[in-house]
Amino acid sequence: MAAHFDTSPEVVPPSNAPEVYDARQHQAGAWQPYGSFTPRSMDNTLPFDRNDSQVYSSGAPTLPPKSELGSPVAGTATPARQGKRRSICGCSFLVFVLISALIICGAAIIGLAAATGISMRREKSANSELSAMRASSLSEAPTVTVTSSGPASTADEQERLTHGCSRKNEKTSRTVYESKFFNSSFTMYCNRNAPNDPIFSLFATTLDGCIEACATWNNRTITETTCEGVSFVPFWAVIGNAAKNDAPGDCYLKPGPQDRDGLEDAQDTHAAILKD
């Protein structure tokens, strides 16, 4: 049988162009005469360095044994170690915070107790000094003896209280007293008592004060009754004497009518009548 040759032209690509794969070259019975194709040099076409030490297998990659898979790679932490909580001084963070809080509270309590003790000590010292000062002042203070003899202790004092009615030869009767606060005038009578029931009683201490009370009543108090006379008892100017006699005062304001002829005799009682 005669041999058949493929007489079609063959395309030879340039040295740097990609190689065209011709499937007919690998078909059964297809062959080319020797020398019809010149293979390219591998050293000129490979864009990378050849490494003969690399061996490629056409089969599937093999897995490492289970013994190697079970052991952790050196330098990597296991999940248990990666999830371990942070510790401070061998204690967990929460325990460390609680211990620190307890220490701070204890220090605050100790400081408060110390401050309280210091303040109490200072207060005690201040009280001791104050007591010493009081004792010293009491021991150094002079002793004063006061004798209460009442308004009639001396003749001059009695004369002042009664506006001169206590004199043996009194010259006060039928003299006029002018009010120091209001435009009122009163005629004074010694050892006389103004009649009628009093409209008010008080402690005036002196005959002058009793007359001023009558003038004030007429100018400050809104009443239908006018004070037209007064009766003053100097003995009751002492509160103790008035209390023993159940006297509500030493000055008694009297309503009208009042006149000289209507006055009553009364020892140690002095009267004054409002002038028209």
Question: How would you sum up this structure, described in words?
Answer:
The protein is of the alpha+beta class and 276 residues long. It has a domain at 155-274. Helices cover 32% and strands 13% of the residues. It has seven helices and ten strands. The chain has helices at 42-45, 66-70, 79-82, 93-140, 155-162, 207-220, 239-244, and strands spanning 87-88, 91-92, 175-178, 185-189, 192-193, 200-202, 227-232, 251-255, 264-265, 270-274. The model is unreliable at 73-77 and 137-152 (pLDDT under 50).
Short note summarizing the structure:
The protein has 276 residues and is an alpha+beta fold.
- The level of helicity is 25-40%
The whole-number mean of residue pLDDT values reads 73
Strand content: 5-15%
Helix-strand makeup class = alpha+beta
Region (Disordered): 56-79, 141-163
Biased composition (Polar residues): 141-152
Keywords: Membrane, Transmembrane, Transmembrane helix
Transmembrane segments: 93-115
